[in-house]
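New to this. Help decode both lines:
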Amino acid sequence: MTFNDEIGDASERHRSKLVLALDLEDPDHVRLAEAAKRILEDTREYVCAVKINRQLVLALGLNDGVDSIVKLAHDYSLPTIMDAKLNDVSHTNEFMARSYFDAGFDAVIASPTAGWAGGLDSVFAVASSRRRAVILLVYMSNPGAAELYSLNAIGNDGKSRPIFERFTDMAIERKADGVIVGATQPRIVSRVRELAGNELAIFSPGVGAQGGNPREALDAGSNYLIVGRSIYGANDPSKAAHDLRDLTA
C-alpha cells in the first residue's frame, strides 16, 4: 500500500483531513516525549497522519526517541511524515532520507531549492527503493514566503514564471507524492491545484496560529491541513482536534 493509499484510508476512516503536527518544545526531554505521545493518543481518532519536525528530532534523537513516537502512530494506523525540508547536496540528502526512513517514517518533505541533479535525485531514489514518499515544499506559510516563492524566474524554456509554479512543475515531472502549500495562501493553493490537476495531494500548514483559514484552504484545493499549535497548545487537545475535524469534514 502506498503512502497516499494509507493517508487516504485513514482520512476516510476518521472522516478527517487533519495532519497532526507534533512540533512541541520542552527542555525536559522526558516530559517532551511523554507529552508528544499523550497528545497523539488523545487525538488519534480525529487525524489522518502525523507530521514531526526537527524540534522532536533534535531533542529526543531518532533512535530510541522519535522512532517510538513513529511506532505509536503506526500502531494507530496513522502514516508519518518527517518535516525535514531536505535541501542539501545529493549524498547528504541520501543519508538524511535513509536515516528518517530507517526510523520508520513513511514520507519526507524536501525543498526543491536544491535542484534535481546532485540534489533531490538521491531522495527520490531512496524513497522509490523503499516504497516511501516524497512531498515537495512549493510555498511556505510564513509571511516572508513571497520573497522567494513568488519571484519570477526564467527557466530553460526562456519564459518567466513564479518560482512556486516551477516547483510545482518539478513535483509533477518527478512524480512526487504531494506538495506543501501554506493555508495562508489560498490563491496560491488554487493556482497549484490548477497546474497539478488531481495528480498531487496538497498539504497545507499554517491553519490557526499563523492565521490560515481551514475552509478557504480546502475550498481552494487543499487535500489535507497540517495543524500543530492550535491542537497541542489547546487546553484540551482532544476537543480541539475533534472540533477542527468536524469543522473541516
Q: What stands out?
A: The chain is about 50% helix and 20% strand. The two ends are 24 Å apart (CA to CA). Strands lie at 18-22, 49-52, 80-86, 107-110, 133-139, 152-154, 160-162, 178-181, 202-205, 224-227.
